[in-house]
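Hello Y.,

Per our agreement to keep a running log of every chain we model this quarter, I'm adding this entry. I've kept the format consistent with earlier entries: sequence first, then predicted structure.
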Amino acid sequence: MTMPDAVAGAMPIGAVDHVPPDKVFAAPQQATDFKFDSRTAGVFDDMVGRSVPFYHEIQRMTTELAADFAVPGTNLYDLGCATATTLIACEPVVHPDVHFVGIDNSAEMLAKAQSKLDTLPSARRRTLVLGDLHEEIKIENASVVILTLTLQFVRPLHRERLIRTIAEGLNPQGCLILVEKLTEGDTLFNRLFIKYYYDMKRRHGYSDLEISQKREALENVLIPYHLDENEALCRKCGFTKFQTWFRWYNFSGMIAVK
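Predicted structure for the entry above:
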């Protein structure tokens, strides 16, 4: 399937048939920290598609950037690869001699990722790795590293080490593609952007109870940075170029080049 077919068709890129609807927070429940467990993995594709503004367009744009920076004979890493949506979206547009490596700390997510990859046979070398970004990971011979809505779940204490590891493992002119939820320094805009975001979730079928309970579950788990904090972090760790390529209120796509 070519990329134009994927965009024009009814099924968004990287999606699969019969995705169960996200009902994780539909019933009243005791507040606990959000987990990427089997319950989340089973509905993750629906969850992220309804919770992230222009999610499928962000994926498409990510594949364009990845295709231009990926170099044959090198590695493309997706850190926090979840159910492999991004890797699957990259499959038809990235050179076949680029090795795909997906890393995630959830065995349940990786099992879902593997099942999706198994339905899409490829001659490309593809590897899934169980790994925690709070600990040391191996990045080597990389031309592209992708962090889609992942860095925000890494505790701030470990973010500089992770970004530095990425920079050191990238080849010259390699890129980091970063998608993050942001927080605003100005309280007026921060409040408005959050309001608009919750309005979007309501339009996508989430109830006020679901929105409230998920917000509580994410409170101590998802810690967003300001846009300029993300840029400063990348430049401090060795990236020489930084640019935003997507912005929707409190969500942004960014690219940093070594």
